[in-house]
């Protein structure tokens, strides 16, 4: 009798969920499924681009100031529309303004946006931004820097992460008192689009293998759908080897033998886990950048999405992840000359001059790193276009 009552209770709750949460899910996933990478927004005002800048919390503001300083020094033809989002606010007005700005400009660079409120109605701004803009894929290229203290050398792999589904669907409820259910959303449509992106990326960038990361031995329907879809799409790319690995073993293998991997194709949560493991093995959160792509917009950010609140304002944070994000953004916008010059200055600072912050085992301050990058830019004698 008690079991029957519990089942009836759960059934009623699920019916209520359909009424109350379906619209929220549709709002989060309302962008049409397309296959194209966002086109470069048309430059305005004499070849200059306007980019939305969202500093975020923690060290975000100071890092964005350094990005703007380097861009001014190098004459980069990019203007920033800077918008701050108050992490303590229970209003979504700041977030709505940010979304409007990105939709207007087409491209954004951002720090990690904190959402400190734990109220049910206040959504994670980072997750909601990716869902609202349809940023279905996150790409993290992890290539070790020579001379940086790390656990493995010569690592060069890419994580292609699903960005809008899985455990990050933000759909959860208390079915009965003391029992909370969280919905993991996996669809064939989104899985197919992501898999095709990963294999196209591998082919375009000279990669040889794609490994699908999953837990289909336990989550047979959700992860099983993701795995079977990737296997089906793999048949369209006979020149790219495909295999798969359970997430538990993947973490161990990344620590033991990361060189066996080339491109990792992951669901949302597994991408977060593997990205942090890989970055931790080859230098930490301060070096690597992440790219978020949708059908219409692109957003660039540090790869591990850390806020760095504890080191904010101390002049000790590592600026290179955010600088590398700005390089990715410039490449996307077609400003390759500026991107190559800044990327080379970053590389020379880290590898040749060994200017390392404390997280890399060095003693340099943030400003030491930035000044050294500026020094290398001054030495390159590049003919800058678009300087006003």
List its salient traits:
single chain; 388 residues; alpha/beta; ten-stranded mixed sheet; two-stranded antiparallel ribbon; 42% helix; globular; disordered N terminus
Describe the fold and architecture:
- With 388 residues, the protein is α/β, with parallel strands linked by helices.
- The chain is 42% helix and 16% strand.
- It has eleven helices and twelve strands.
- The strands form two sheets. A ten-stranded mixed β-sheet has the order 2-1-3-12-11-4-5-10-8-9, sandwiched between helices. A two-stranded antiparallel sheet has the order 6-7.
- Helix 2 (60-74) packs parallel to helix 11 and helix 9 (320-333) runs antiparallel to helix 10.
- The longest helix has 27 residues, at 2-28.
- It is globular and about 55 Å long.
- Residues 50-373 form the Isopropylmalate dehydrogenase-like domain.
Order of helices and strands: HEHEHEHEEEEHEHEHEHEEHHH
> What would you call the structural class?
alpha/beta
Large-scale geometry: globular
Instruction: Give the amount of beta strand, in percent.
Output: 15-25%
Detail the poorly predicted runs: 1-36
For the largest beta-sheet, the strand count, sense and barrel status come to:
10 strands, mixed
Number of DSSP helical runs: 11
What percentage of residues falls in helices of 4 or more residues? 40-55%
| Biggest β-sheet: strands ordered side by side in the sheet | 2-1-3-12-11-4-5-10-8-9
Average predicted confidence as pLDDT: 85
Q: What radius of gyration results from the CA coordinates? A: 22 Å
Q: Calculate the terminal CA-CA distance, rounded to whole Å.
A: 78 Å
Q: What's the count of strands? A: 12
Family: Belongs to the isocitrate and isopropylmalate dehydrogenases family.
Organism: Chironomus riparius
Pfam families: Iso_dh
Subcellular location: Mitochondrion
């Amino acid at each position: 009798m008690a079991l029957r009552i519990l089942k009836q209770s759960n059934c009623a709750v699920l019916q209520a969920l359909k009424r109350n949460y379906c619209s929220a899910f549709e709002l989060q996933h309302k962008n049409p499924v397309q296959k194209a990478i966002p086109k470069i927004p048309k430059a305005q005002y004499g070849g200059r681009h306007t980019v939305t800048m969202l500093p975020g919390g923690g060290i975000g503001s100071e890092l964005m100031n350094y990005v703007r300083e380097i861009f001014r020094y190098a004459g980069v033809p990019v203007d920033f529309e800077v918008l701050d989002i108050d992490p303590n606010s229970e209003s979504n007005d700041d977030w709505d303004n940010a979304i409007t700005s990105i939709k207007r400009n087409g491209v954004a660079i951002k720090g990690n946006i904190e959402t400190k409120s734990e109220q049910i109605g206040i959504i994670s701004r980072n997750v909601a931004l990716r869902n609202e803009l349809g940023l279905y894929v996150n790409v993290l290229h992890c290539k070790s820097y020579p001379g940086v203290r790390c656990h493995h050398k010569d690592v060069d792999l890419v994580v292609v992460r699903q960005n809008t589904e899985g455990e990050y669907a933000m759909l959860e409820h208390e079915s009965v008192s003391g029992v909370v259910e969280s919905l993991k959303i996996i669809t064939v449509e989104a899985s197919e689009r992501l898999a095709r992106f990963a294999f196209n990326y591998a082919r375009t960038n000279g990669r040889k293998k794609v490994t699908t990361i999953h837990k289909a031995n336990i989550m047979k329907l959700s992860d099983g759908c993701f795995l079977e879809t990737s296997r089906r799409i793999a048949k369209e790319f006979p020149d790219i080897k495909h295999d798969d690995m359970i997430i538990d073993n993947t973490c161990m293998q990344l620590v033991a033998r990361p060189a066996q991997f080339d491109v990792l194709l992951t669901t949302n949560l597994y991408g977060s886990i593997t990205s942090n493991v890989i970055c931790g093995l080859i230098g930490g959160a301060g070096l690597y950048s992440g790219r978020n792509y949708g059908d219409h917009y692109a957003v660039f950010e540090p790869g591990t999405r850390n806020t760095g609140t504890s080191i904010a304002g101390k002049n000790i944070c590592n600026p290179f992840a955010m600088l590398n994000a700005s390089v990715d953004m410039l490449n996307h916008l077609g400003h390759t000359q500026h991107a190559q010059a800044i990327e080379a200055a970053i590389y020379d600072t880290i590898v040749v001059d060994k200017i390392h912050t404390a997280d890399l085992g060095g003693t340099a301050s943030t400003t030491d790193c930035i000044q050294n990058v500026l020094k290398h830019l001054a030495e390159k004698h590049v003919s800058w276009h678009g300087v006003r």
